[in-house]
Amino acid sequence: MVSRLLNATLVIPEIQSTTSSKGISSEFKSFAYLYNEDQFIAALAKDVRIVKTLPKNLKGARKKKEIPMFRVSNLASPYFYLHRVLPVLNKHSVVELVISDGGCMQAILPSHLEEYQRLRCRVAFHALRFRQEVQELASKILNRLRAPGRPFIAYDPGLTRDALAYYGCGELFQDVHTELIQHRRSWMIKRGLIKGNLSVNSAEQRLNGSCPLMPEEVGILLRAYGYSGDTIIYVSGGEVFGGQKKLIPLHGLFENVVDKTSLSTTWELGRVYGQEANLVDKYPQTRYIVKEEERRREAWKTLGPRPRPLPPPPARPKYPYNIEGWWGWVAESDNEPESTIMELRMNAHKLLWEAIDYTICVEADVFVPGFDRDGKGRPNFASLVMGHRLYQSAASKTFRLHRRQVVKLLEEIRDHLYQANHTWITSVRRHMRKSLLEGLKHESTQSKPLSFLSHPIPECSCSRYDPSTETAFRASSPSSQSQVQAALGVTHPCPVWVDGNTIAQSKSIDKEREEDLDENDSSSSGLFFRHSGGSHGGGGGGEINNKEEAQMEDQEELEGSER
User: Fold this and answer.
1) What is the DSSP string of 433-480?
2) How many Cα neighbours within 13 Å face the side chain of 145?
3) How many degrees, rounded to 5, is the angle at CA 451 between CA 371 and CA 104?
4) Are the C-beta atoms of 353 and 347 separated by less than 8 Å?
5) Which of 79, 268, 316, 383 lies at a 20 to 30 A Cα distance from 368?
6) At residue 347, does pLDDT exceed 50?
7) What is the mean pLDDT of residues 404-419?
8) What CA–CA distance (Å, rounded) separates 13 from 103?
């Protein structure tokens, strides 16, 4: 979108957490580790010119760090690019953008830039396709989930350490995880990411709806709604902070709780990773062995004349699992250890896991988010899934729960969670049914100003008409059709070309690869440079392309199998 605004050529972005220096396979490189490069270039061929590498005369300049660089935030405005970046681009012919906040332009744009919002949808929902190995494994898992012939629910807990620290939810754990959360919150306060006290009343935060719903609470809501105990629950997300013990109550409520590891083999996951070399960690994790006992003994020997106090008793032996675990450093040091080479490789793997989870959650019959914010207060994985589901099939069942109201309902039966009465169950069902549509209004006012893709409606929506029946949203009933259209604000029909053929794959494939440049920043980097001819963009105020690639396919709403 920025390259079109500046009328510049885009170099394929780099994903810094997927460079070869992180120990991943040399088969894939940066952007290609996660996405299909050729599809990305071909899908946006009519919007912006994209190349895979810099011209040779600019590669050396980048290695010498002579290319101007801008670190941009997700709140950057078109004015910033037109008045700050564009003059530098015109002078040097190339600029580099480093993006670490998940976006490079503000979510809400002026009405005359609405086409750029539709371009966002074309990029996110059409151009960005995961590479073939990731898509194949996701398809296999989907087939295995649907093999029993019943609908399944995708559930994203949203229990991440950063999000819990940001909103002050550490006291909900009451174990070593609380200390880990507080350590992260202290780190955020020191760096100005959050303003507030280190100690926060987590109970109040939970009552205000600022903390994630626990898996047990989500399970109780789903059972109250009417889902039976043999319903398939797919748990997404690379990290469930608190460990598997937080999922034990969910397993007790539903017998078919699965995830990607239980539905795929080690060989299948290894095929996605590619051929990876056996690494010798350059930075082995330090063992935090306490030497307090030795210090006391030395102090005892150097004390004055007798009588001396008896030497301290021998310390209780510390077993390896107490000091070498992933959390062991908390009791021994105020500083979190640096990531090892194996941990860096695992972080790259997590991107692939999230890509698989994302595909499954978008295609799921029902999606339930446990939390919709990340560790910086912005929409997270679950919000992007909800936005994609809204764009792809507005009538797909997505529960957008109002956490404050849900917590209030749960507090009413806190002492007898598993013995709810009929009145309470009725209240839960009413709230969950209302959340299917009323949650859209909440997303449009709360999430959209922070992330456009969490609610890409109505800018990217249009009404598709069947020529034979002259009805929009062919898969939905008349009643749900009017409700969905009213909630989404759809007021205009899709152009004819939406039903046309997809863009053909580019015949000429640039096979030249740029050497990886290791950056100690888990961010994305993009390069723009000038090209002759101005047929690909508006140059800041040019003519806006009126083609709308966005499409909305509505399907029949899957009712909640109330039994």
Assistant:
1) HHHHHHHHHHHHHHTTTT-GGGS-TTTT--B-B-TTT--BSTTS-HHH
2) 29
3) 130
4) no
5) 268
6) yes
7) 90
8) 13
DSSP letter for each residue of 44-100: TTTT--EESS--HHHHHHHHTT-S-EEEE-TT--HHHIIIIIHHHHHHHSEEEEEE-
Give the pair of three-digit tokens for residue 512: 């030249």
Residue 531 · residue 25 · CB < 8 Å: no
pLDDT at residue 139 tops 90:
yes
Q: What is the DSSP letter of 418?
A: T
Q: What is the CA radius of gyration of the chain?
A: 26
Beta bridge partners of 15: 524
pLDDT at 404: 92
Query: In this predicted model, what pLDDT tens digit does every residue of 67-99 receive, in sequence order?
Result: 888 988 888 899 999 999 999 999 988 999 888
How far apart, in whole angstroms, are the C-alpha atoms of residue 95 and residue 168? 39
Return the bridge partners of 9, or none: 529
Kindly state the greatest CA–CA separation across the chain: 105
Overall average pLDDT of the 337-362 stretch? 85
The strands making up 69-72's β-sheet, listed across from edge to edge, are 50-51, 9-15, 524-529, 94-99, 69-72
Report the 10 Å Cβ neighbour count for 468: 7
- Residue 479 CA to residue 502 CA, distance in Å, equals 32
Structure tokens that stand for 183 in this block: 């350590």
Asked if 237 and 270 touch (Cβ cutoff 8 Å), the reply is no
SS3 per residue for 235-283: ECCCCCCCCHHHHHHHHHHCCEEECCCCCCCHHHHHHHHCCCCCCCCCC
Q: What does the angle CA 375 – CA 378 – CA 383 come to, to the nearest 5 degrees?
A: 105
Pair 430, 406: CB distance under 8 Å: no
What length is written for the chain? 563
How many Å apart are CA 370 and CA 342, to the nearest integer?
A: 29
Q: Which uninterrupted H or E stretch holds 411?
A: helix 403-412
Gap between the Cα atoms of 339 and 83, Å rounded: 39
Q: Report the percentage of the chain scoring pLDDT > 70.
A: 71
Residue written as token pair 């012919």: 93
| Side-chain half-sphere exposure of 241, counting CA atoms within 13 A | 28
Long-range CB pairs of 463-470, under 8 A, 24+ apart, other chains included: 463/490, 463/492, 463/493, 463/494, 463/552, 464/493, 464/494, 464/498, 464/499, 464/551, 464/552, 464/553, 465/493, 465/494
How far is residue 421's CA from residue 415's CA, in Å, rounded to a whole number? 13
DSSP string of 203-220, one letter each residue: HHHHHTT-SPPPHHHHHH
pTM: 0.76
Highest mean pLDDT among 18-27, 197-206, 285-294, 461-470: 197-206
